[in-house]
Design a protein that fits this description.
By secondary structure, the protein is an alpha+beta fold. It contains three helices and four strands.
């Protein structure tokens, strides 16, 4: 399927392209029962539309800095995929536990 998938986006397209073969697994978690993991077909080439927008790059840098600071305080994930939730109860970003439990706040 890779030749078909690679041809889905035009060469001029800046978007990243990922594929993930997933499927239902009766009685278990897809991560442990043979389903695949996301595969990068091609990386993003950036967003040229933002290059000429006044202030867009500085705002993006600020957002990325804040994200780095937030994720620095979280425990490193030990599984894939990692799911992070913006908790409305305590207004802190949490790593989502596998059991689906939520913050006690």
């Amino acid at each position: 399927m890779f030749p078909i998938v690679r041809g889905r986006l035009e060469d001029e397209c800046e978007a990243a392209h990922w594929v993930w073969s997933i499927g239902a697994v009766v009685g278990g978690d897809e991560l442990c029962r043979g389903a695949g993991a996301p595969i990068e077909v091609r990386p993003s080439r950036g967003n040229s539309r933002l290059a000429n927008v006044i202030g867009a790059q500085s705002v993006r840098q600020e957002v990325e800095q804040h994200l780095r600071e937030m994720f620095t305080n979280l425990q490193a994930p030990t599984i894939f995929p990692s799911i992070f939730v913006d908790c409305k109860g305590c207004r802190i970003v949490h790593g989502m536990p596998l059991d689906g439990s939520v913050c006690a706040a």
